[in-house]
Amino acid sequence: MKKTSSHFLNFILFAVIIFSNYSFGKEFQKLFEITAPTNNVSNIDIVISKSFNDLVYRLTGDNNFRTIKKIAPDMKTKKDFLVSYEPITINDESFLLSKFNKDSLIKKLNELEIPVIGYNRPIAMLLIKIDDGKHPPYILNSSSNKLLDENIKFILNKTSNKRGIFFELPVFDLNDLEELNNLTIFDSEKEIILSNYEYDYELNLQLSQPFINQWIITGDLNLDEFVSLDSILLDLEKNLNIITDNYLTNFITPNISNSINISVSNINSYDEFVGFQEALNRLISIRDIKITSYNNSTISYTFIIRGNLESFMKEVNANLDLQVINVEEDFISIELNN
Fold this sequence. Notes:
Elements: E1 12-13, E2 26-27, E3 33-37, H1 44-60, H2 65-71, H3 75-80, E4 82-90, E5 93-100, H4 102-111, E6 116-117, E7 120-121, E8 123-131, E9 138-139, H5 147-163, E10 166-168, H6 174-181, H7 189-194, E11 201-211, E12 214-219, E13 221-222, H8 229-249, E14 252-253, E15 257-265, H9 270-280, E16 286-295, E17 298-306, H10 309-318, E18 322-328, E19 331-336
Parallel strand pairs: 8-10, 8-11, 15-19
Antiparallel strand pairs: 1-13, 2-7, 3-5, 4-5, 6-14, 8-9, 11-12, 15-17, 16-17, 18-19
Protein name: DUF2066 domain-containing protein
InterPro entries: DUF2066
Pfam families: DUF2066 (PF09839)
C-alpha cells in the first residue's frame, strides 16, 4: 500500500452512534495477552517492550509515552510484569505471544491512579455497504470473501485485538438473504439487519468506486476526495482507532472507591466455588473481598471496588459465568452460571 498524504486524512466523524446506560459489552477474555509480529527482530526484548506498550494502550486507552514511563520506566520493569512468552506461527508468519501478570499490573495502575478499562469491552456493529462499480452493491458480512472484503476484515480484526474492542459484522443465513433481496419501499434494510443484534455502538459506512481506482467513503465517516483503494484502507484503519478512543471512553472505570454488598447463590460444590473465584478474578474493579456469611449454597460478600455501582454492573453483565438476579441500592444478588 502506498503512503497516504496528510491531505487524505480528512475524515470527519459526525456521529457518535449509540450508547445507553445499559451496556451490551462482552468479555475480552485474553485481555492480558499480546500477540505481536516479530518481523525477523533478533532482539526479543524489543518485541516484549512493544507488547507491554500495546497492553498499556489496551488497558488505559492511552498510548502516551509518559504514561508508559510512569508504569515501567525501563525494560527490566516491563519484564517484571511478564509471566511468559513463546514464539508462535500464524498463517506462516512469526509472532510472539506474551502473557502479563494481571494482579501486579492492575495494582500498579491503581497506585498511580491511572484509569483502567477492564474485561468488559464495547460491541460496535458495523454496516458497511460496498459498491465497486462492477457488481451489485452488498453489505459486508461474516461470509463475504472477496479480496477487498478480506482486507477490511483484516483491519477490523487487527484493531479489535490491539485495542480490545469488538467490531462485529452481520451474519446472514439464507432466510436473511431472501428477506434482504425482497425489500419494499416500506422496509428499512438497516433496521431489519440490526434488529437481530445487541450492541453498544453502530457504525454505518458506504465504500464506493464511481471511477477506476477512485474510491470514497461516506456515511458516519466522510472523506471529501476520491483516493486510491490503498489510501482508503490506510485511512480506514487510522480512523477506526480514533473511533475506538471515543467508544472506550464510556467503559473506563471511574477512579473512586465504593463498598458493595453481594449475595451469590447456586454454589453447591468446591469446584463451583473455585469457578466463582475465577470469575471474580476477571472483575478487575474489585480491590478487596470479605466473606460476611455462608448459608447452604449462598455466600455473602462485601466488596471494595474501584468505580461505582453502574461500572461494576457493566463488568458483571459481561462476565460469562455470572448472572445478576437483583439490584437494590448497594446490594446485588448474583447467581453462578453452572
